[in-house]
Write a sequence for this structure.
């Protein structure tokens, strides 16, 4: 991701309650997460950027590379509207 994309991602994380979670020394990725109800979303960024969405009850996971921040924002917005409305 370009520096401007990283800045936009960091602003997205701050605006949506993501908190610093970990630093992966092996990949050089900084990991942020947010949890609501049964769901946890993690964002890892460094040389590459990924998100993982976990259902803490069923242990299902959906992980993918972030290629466009807008796609991540749409996924987060849909999740917030359908799963986190009561949180």
């Amino acid at each position: 991701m370009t520096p401007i994309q990283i800045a936009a991602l960091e602003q997205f994380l701050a605006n949506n309650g993501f908190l610093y979670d970990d630093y992966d020394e092996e990949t050089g990725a900084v990991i942020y997460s947010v949890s609501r109800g049964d769901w946890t979303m993690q964002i890892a960024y460094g040389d590459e950027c990924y998100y993982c969405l976990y259902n803490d009850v069923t242990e299902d996971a959906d992980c993918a590379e972030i290629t466009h921040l807008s796609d991540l924002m749409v996924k987060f917005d849909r999740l917030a509207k359908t799963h986190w409305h009561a949180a």
About this structure: The mean pLDDT is 86.
